[in-house]
């Protein structure tokens, strides 16, 4: 039987950590890299017999996840998020797959829940991410600070069963998360020397709303679809506001 390491990065995940630990019973070890949580995340996890906890300052998602990978003892890794629930049929499929693998990594499709309501459209209908992979063949791309992507040296397959993605219990919680993503994305764009203009401030946010609400059928998800589309449009606008602020701050530093 192949052994597997279950990895997780955390910051104030006390409401999700017990479920994650229960879901990760299939793993031979559980690696948690915590970004100095101020709630009971570490306290709730530290006595679990399979858990190894590393406290580490957060730089960006890619950096934190690659550090977690480096701490894994086993070749096969599962890397889920704390707000994702792993159903039993998916757990069985993971174990069966790594004991007879055809690929070096595997996508897992996600059922998206917003405010405890299943969202079928709004751009979420094809949502998937690599969640199971070989340590020796995969790493997160260093040029992505947010919405991190796995770079795999080999072919990538897809598991049949889906996970449940319980995102946010309120619009304000979702807005805060998207705002943190916008700040990291702005840093990425600054490194690429992109300078924002009218197109970025006005056209791109408008298109993002249309894309989620009309093109990707968010209108069929009711008021939640409208809310999700609006919040994503806001996050695009904030991305370029933050990018412009970076340029202004660096410009003032040069003057001084």
TrEMBL record:
Which superkingdom, per the lineage? Answer: Bacteria
Q: Name one Pfam family in it.
A: Glycos_transf_2
What the entry lists under InterPro entries is as follows: Glyco_trans_2-like, Nucleotide-diphossugar_trans
Give residue ranges for domain Glycosyltransferase 2-like: 5-129
Family indicated by similarity: Belongs to the glycosyltransferase 2 family. WaaE/KdtX subfamily.
Q: What name does the UniProt record give this protein? A: Glycosyltransferase family 2 protein
Task: Write down the species.
Answer: Faecalibacter rhinopitheci
């Amino acid at each position: 039987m192949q052994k597997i390491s279950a990895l997780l990065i955390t910051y104030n995940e006390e409401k999700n950590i017990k479920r994650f630990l229960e879901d990760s019973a299939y793993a031979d070890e559980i690696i948690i890299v915590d970004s100095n949580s101020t709630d009971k995340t570490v306290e709730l996890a530290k006595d679990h017999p399979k858990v190894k906890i590393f406290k580490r300052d957060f730089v960006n998602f890619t950096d934190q996840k690659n550090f977690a990978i480096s701490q894994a003892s086993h070749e096969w890794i599962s890397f889920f998020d704390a707000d994702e629930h792993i159903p039993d049929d998916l757990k069985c499929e993971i174990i069966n797959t790594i004991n007879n693998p055809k690929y070096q990594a595997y996508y897992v499709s996600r059922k998206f829940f917003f405010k405890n309501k299943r969202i079928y459209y709004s751009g979420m209908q094809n949502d998937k991410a690599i969640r199971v992979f070989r340590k020796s063949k995969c790493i997160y791309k260093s040029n992505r600070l947010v919405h991190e992507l796995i770079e795999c040296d080999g072919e990538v397959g897809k598991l049949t069963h889906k996970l449940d993605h319980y995102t946010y219990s309120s619009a304000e919680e979702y807005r805060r998360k998207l705002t943190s993503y916008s700040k990291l994305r702005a840093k990425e764009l600054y490194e690429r020397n992109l300078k924002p203009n009218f197109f970025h401030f006005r056209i791109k946010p408008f298109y993002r709303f249309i894309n989620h609400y009309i093109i990707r059928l968010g209108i069929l998800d009711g008021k939640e679809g409208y809310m999700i589309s609006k919040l994503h449009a806001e996050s695009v606008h904030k991305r370029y506001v933050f990018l412009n602020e970076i340029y202004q701050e660096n410009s003032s530093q040069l003057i001084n």
